[in-house]
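As a warm-up, study this chain.
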Amino acid sequence: MMDVKRIGLLVAITGMGAAGACVPKPGQGESASGTIDTTGGVVASLDGRVAVAVPPGAVNAAMNVSVQPIDSPGAGAIGQVFQLEPSGIMFAKPVVLTFHYSASDLGQTQPADLRVATFANGAWTAVPTLVDPATMTVAGQLAHFSIWGTSPQ
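Now compare it with the structure written out below.
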């Protein structure tokens, strides 16, 4: 399992809106997509609020990846929720999903209490998370794509 220090390194290397981010395809509305292959890569949402960094060796063939902002399927999310596609894909190595939050997203929640979480079976389930209040980012390691957001711990 990837430790929190390695999550921080991947966040620092990829950054939000990194130069290696894939360009969204025209005509997809607010969805951003790009091709990720065995060498890895980054796909970011059009608004720059979320980026998914796939490390080398996480997939065994080229695949199209998309990031789509959606309405939260249930209570408890903080900020924008995203559908990552292809939903259900499992990775050979954890990928890092980084959310950029704003003070208005937090309400009464403290940044240290934020967790990257997936929504399944009617509830948010957190994954190992690194919060960086200085850059207002929350990063978590994922084993699969589905619905993702941030929630309080």
